[in-house]
Structures are given as C-alpha cells and as structure tokens.
Amino acid sequence: xxxxxxxxxxxxxxxxxxxxxxxxxxxxxxxxxxxxxxxxxxxxxxxxxxxxxxxxxxxxxxxxxxxxxxxxxxxxxxxxxxxxxxxxxxxxxxxxxxxxxxxxxxxxxxxxxxxxxxxxxxxxxxxxxxxxxxxxxxxxxxxxxxxxxxxxxxxxxxxxxxxxxxxxxxxxxxxxxxxxxxxxxxxxxxxxxxxxxxxxxxxxxxxxxxxxxxxxxxxxxxxxxxxxxxxxxxxxxxxxxxxxxxxxxxxxxxxxxxxxxxxxxxxxxxxxxxxxxxxxxxxxxxxxxxxxxxxxxxxxxxxxxxxxxxxxxxxxxxxxxxxxxxxxxxxxxxxxxxxxxxxxxxxxxxxxxxxxxxxxxxxxxxxxxxxxxxxxxxxxxxxxxxxxxxxxxxxxxxxxxxxxxxxxxxxxxxxxxxxxxxxxxxxx
Length: 428
What we know:
With 428 residues, the protein is of the alpha/beta class. Among the domains are: 40-119, CATH 2.40.50.140; 124-279, 3-Layer(aba) Sandwich (Rossmann fold); 371-418, no CATH class. 41% of the residues lie in helices and 21% in strands. It has helices at residues 2-9, 26-39, 78-82, 121-137, 165-177, 195-207, 233-240, 259-262, 270-277, 281-314, 317-320, 322-364, 367-372, and strands at 43-55, 58-64, 71-77, 93-103, 108-118, 155-161, 182-188, 214-219, 246-250, 265-266, 377-380, 405-410, 413-418. It is elongated and about 190 Å long.
C-alpha cells in the first residue's frame, strides 16, 4: 500500500511538469480533459443545417456557419427534433444549444444538441431591426456622413453576382446614358455563407483603386434569407468606413437591407443605379445647346442695348456740337469777370468816399480847427515843474494869480503874457 502511495506522488501535478522521464498516464490526461470539458457551459449558436440523418432514437446533423466556411457535426435525440412544429430540413436556419462531451474510453470529442429551434422570418426581421437601431444610434446613418457622388465619374466600381442580370442591367443602362463610361467589375457571391467576406474584399479593393470614383453594390432582389448578407454588421461597417461613395442597388423594396441606410445613395434597382450615377448624354447635350442659345441671346441683347445707348449719347447736342459747351462756359466766364470787376470798382469808390468823410470828421475834431475859430490855449509858462514836462493848462483864474507868467497859443503861433489877477466870471 505504501508503494502505491509513493508511486502516485511521483506523478506530475500539472501538464507543464510532465517530461519524457516522468510522463502522465493516458488515463490521467483523459480524465483531466473530461473534467475540463464537463465544466464548460452549454452555448447557443446559430447556423444552417447542411446534413441531417436519423438513426433510431439518435439523429446526426452538421451545422455550418452563416458567414464563413466552418462546419461542426453534432448529435441530437430524435425526441428533441420531434418537438418542433415544423420539421427541420437541410438548409434550415437554426439556433441550437450545444454542449461539448468527451468520451473517456475512446477519447472522442462530440457535440450534443440539447435544444434546437428554427429561425423564422419574424426572428430574422426582429434581429435586423435591432441591429439597424443600434447602428443608427452610433450615427452610421447620419446625413452628415453621406458623401456626394461625382457629377461624371471617370470609372465606376461594380460589385455584383457572377454573370447576373444585375450586372447586365447596370452595364447596359450606364452605357446607353453615357457611352464613354468605364467599369471596374468584381464578381462575387451575393448570397450564402461566403458572400459577406467576398463583398468586403471586393469593396476594399475598389476603395483603394485610384481611378474608381464611385462603387455600386448591386443585386437583383430575392428572398429575405438571400438578402441577409447585405444586413451583416461587418459589411455595414466596411461600407461606412469606405472613402469612396457607395451606392446600394439591391432590387428589393420590402424589408430593405441595412446596406440601404448606410450607403451614400440608395437606388431602388440596379437599373435605377445606372441612371443615377451617370448623366444622360442626350440630355446633357440638349442642356449645352440650351445654355449656348441663352448665352447667345444674352450677348445679342447686351450688344443691342449698348448700341442704342451709344446712339442716344451721340445724338445729344453736347456731343453733336461739342464746341458749344466750351463757348457757353467762355461766355459765363466773361460775364462773371465783368461782374467781379464792377463789384470791385464800386467797393473801391465807396471806400474812398468813406475815407474822405472820415478825414473831414477827424479834421473837424482837431484842436487846430478850434484855434482857427479864434480860441486860444492859456498855459502856465513854467508851471513850477521840471524842464521837459508838460505845461498845465489854465482852467481857473485861481491858477494864475497876478504876476504869473503865461504862454498863450493861438492859431498863428504862441506868445507870452503875464496875469493881472483873477476876476469873477461875468454873469450872463
């Protein structure tokens, strides 16, 4: 017993501790794998049934991924299948509850289906609407993210099915409208589990092409299940991130795919896309002719209007006899010169008369005039003042008592006198 315990203790505790000299028994590895797998929880997965075989109470089916080339075999009890209202068939889209199981004796790993449910159209529509609302909340459908299409694209990238009617419609109608249009065509799967990957690869290739001005993704309609790739989130985000304008041309009015919301332009059909991405050469030539006619009429009206204006200006008297304008101004200048000379002369004469009058007034007020009328100015001879000072004028007899020397100034000159005393002024 002790030897068995000792042998057990020499077994490595983990896989990392094993070695060629000290390996695990196969039983131990199988037991640990089973314990690990048994602890793994069940998982709901979505896929498409591509194989279904009933064998008594068991059934074996193969599920394939919706968008990738990945498949997985699984087993299911027939009683689980019998619970379905609609029998499952190959091609059915389902969601299944899978649990991994490891068989210890054979070392075989298998997947067991604990429950399975078909995915109906209502479930698909509800799922698409939930994704549509989520992407709209992120702003992927905002008008500010929409890129304008070029007026006349140099080269058009076309992503469509192999030798499909959608491809023929786009190429034919675009060439009818603009014969010089060029295309860069990428034929891909437009339904099935490889459609999304191929469309995204073609989109990125055309988006990187330097001569491609617009990209058209076209398909000629189909059932809802066939159009599911055009509502795939990965494809929608790839279209949103493209730098080249993208046109959605999926010919399906009802239950339209999310691609219509994120594309820069939605066309109802591939034919409608061809009409909206290139102009009609006939219409454009008609517009050019119309524009040329409008320009010609406008230029003719302008020349005629300006010719009439020139004729009207030339017919005016001032232009018919331009010297009249000079002679009129000459007469005006002569008249103004005469008026100015007359005004100056009158002012000078008037000022001279006023000057003579003022001189007469000044002379009339002169002391000399007063002396000429017989008056005299009596002043004290020395006034008892210092030499060089002004003599006092005698205004009262008290200023010249008897014997006071006086100087008398008359009109003809001055002489000296002596006061004999004052007298009272005579009464009138």
